[in-house]
TrEMBL record:
Protein name: Alpha/beta hydrolase fold-3 domain-containing protein
MF GO annotations: hydrolase activity
Domain Alpha/beta hydrolase fold-3 span(s) in chain numbering: 56-177
InterPro entries in the cross-refs: AB_hydrolase_3, AB_hydrolase_fold, Carboxylest/Gibb_receptor
PANTHER family: ALPHA_BETA HYDROLASE FOLD-3 DOMAIN-CONTAINING PROTEIN (PTHR23024:SF339), ARYLACETAMIDE DEACETYLASE (PTHR23024)
Endpoints of the signal sequence: none
Organism: Colletotrichum nymphaeae SA-01
Amino acid sequence: MDLLPHPDDMSRFSDFTILTTIYKTISDHSITTDVLIPKKLTEASSPVTSPCPIILRYHGGGFIGGASLYPGFFAPWHMELAARHSAVIVSPNYRLAPESTIDDLLEDIEDHWAWVHKELAPFLKKELGARVDVDTDRILTAGDSAGGYLSIMTGLSHAKEIRAVTAAYPCIDLADAHFMERPTAPVFGLALPQSIVDDHFEKIRNGKAPALISNDRYLERGLLMFANLQHGGFPKMFPLEKEQLFPFERLRTGQKFPRGGVFVWQGADDSVVPAKGNVALKELVREVDPELEFNLAVQPGEHGFDAMTKIDEEWMASGLRNLVKAWLQ
């Protein structure tokens, strides 16, 4: 946590034009999405290009914290990949737990999917003229941790419309005791008190906290995020009877990933999302969809180990190679 950049340090986005707009409104609450375009495509002298491929990226934060442009969870490899292939990154906010349910969150993701297909191109034309267009037939999904879950879930929901899926240490095996009971050790070694969770719910009950949150750009909910996992908050978020919330169950019932493949990476020493969950995902995919190219890279390190990973590092380049071909072709 101490190694995360300051939330106002936007230097990693310096080569991108960032446009922000509302994609959904609930009562009087607006939920925004950010669109990042390489500046080489948006400068006045830039020639008109062919429609750009899209990286549809979902932020992490334990379903409780984070935001679409929070730099600490937005690894630079996204920008590196987008710059190399003249791609547009689209990164939405979404309702956060515990004020909202996971069903609410997934509803936002589906509404954002519809926005991308109906409104993204007109929005870019309005903001940038004819210089930048997008190709919604060439979508690669990405996400870290909770965002990795969303990348996986979106891939399963739109397997015929997405070219390929990437996910960094995604929360996948959510029925595991690590999530349904309690982790065997505090995440990141942070022994947080139950009172962090209890006090937050008390504020919600007493109307002293907003009824709806969709942007935690300063990660003010970071301790709540970890305390919720440490003290068994996931069973409330992911009731076992709601099988549609569990990727393993969706795969077992015959749903499939995009044919361009899946690349998941994971820290071997991850205390937030144990590596065994994504090893189990690979084994399940091998069982139910043996023809799919599914790559799992388990690397030394904790949750967020890829903070400064470059796309040409051997393990990353190897996992991305065929997915990028499928994405761009």
